[in-house]
Amino acid sequence: MKKIINSALFIVYVGMFFVSCSDTDTQDENPDNNQSFYKEVLSDLALNVITETYRSLNAQALTLQNAVDAMSVGDENALTTAKVAWQQTRAPWEQSEGFLYGPVDTEGIDPAIDSWPVDVNAINNILNSGNPITQSLLESNNEARGFHTLEYFLWGLEGTKPASALTNRELEYLKAAAANLQSKTEELYSGWLVSQGNFAGNFINAGNTGSIYASQKSALQEIAEGLSIIADEVANGKIEEPLNGNNGSAKPEAEESRFSNNSKLDFANNIRSIQNIYLGNYAGNVNNGLSAIVSENDSSLDVEIENLITDAINTIEAIPGTFTEAIINNREAVAQAQQKVRALQTLLDSKLLPLMSGL
Q: Is the domain 215-359 a CATH 1.20.1420.20 member?
C-alpha cells in the first residue's frame, strides 16, 4: 500500500510538473505575443490615424491658403469659398485634439494655430502700422494669427461681414495668416512622417532604444490620457465657460468659433478625435485602436466606451440652433451634451486609464 501511495504521489507530481511547465511556457509566450499586438496597435494609431489626420489638415490648409489668395474686395463668391475652406481645414484640426503630444506641443504649434480669444488690439495695431504684413511679422503674437484670426476676418465680429467690407489691408493680413497657418500644419505633418521628423517612430518602437517611451505600456498610457484630456477640455472648458461663465449665466464672448457658428461641429469633432483613436479608424480606413486592447481584456467595457462616445457626439449635434443661441435659449440641451461628455471623461479616467496602467 505504501508503494502504491508513493507511486500515485509520483504520478501526481509528474503531472503537476508538466502542467507547471506548460503554464510557464504559455506565460513566456504571452509577453512576446502582447509586444507584437501592442506594436501593431501603436503603429496603426501613429501612422494611419495620427499622421493621416495631420496629412488631411495640411492638405486642407493649402486649399485654404489658395482660396484666401484668390480673394478680392467685393467678391462674395471668393469669400464664401474661403469660408468653406476654413471649415474644412478646421475639421481635421479639431479631430486631432485627442492627441496633443509630440511636435504640436514641443514646437509650440498648438498655440500658433489655435489660440483663443483673438487679440483684436494687436490685430488693429498690425493693420495700422503701415508695415508689410508677412508671416514672420505674425510670429510674435499667437493671438493675432491662426484659425481664429482668419475666422475673425472672414466672418467679422457679428458673423455677417460682407466681402465689400474687407479692405486691401485686411486682405494682406488674411493672406499672411493663411500662409502662416499652412506652414505650421506642414511642420506638424512633417514632424510625424517616418521619412522626416518621424515622431511616429517613438510609438512604433516604444520600449526600444531611440524611443522616448520606455515601454509600450507608457506609450499606450500617453494615448489614453490624451483622450481624457480632450474630454475634460470640451466639457469643463469649451462648453462650461460660455454656458455658465457669467456667474452661472451665459457668457457668449467665451465661445470658441462663435464668429463662424462652428462651435457645435468643433465639439463633435473633438469627440470624434477620441473615437478615431479608440477605434483606430480615420477617413473610412479601419485599423487597430485602443478598442482592440480593451476588448481583449473587458469586452463589456469596450462596448460601454464605444456607446458613450457615440452618445456624446449625437447629443452635441442635437443641440438646437447655433451654440450661441443655445446657451441662452436651450440651456438644458447644452447641459445634457456637457453631461454626456463628462460621463465619457469619467469612464475614461475610472476604467480605461487603469486598464492601460495594468497591462
A: yes
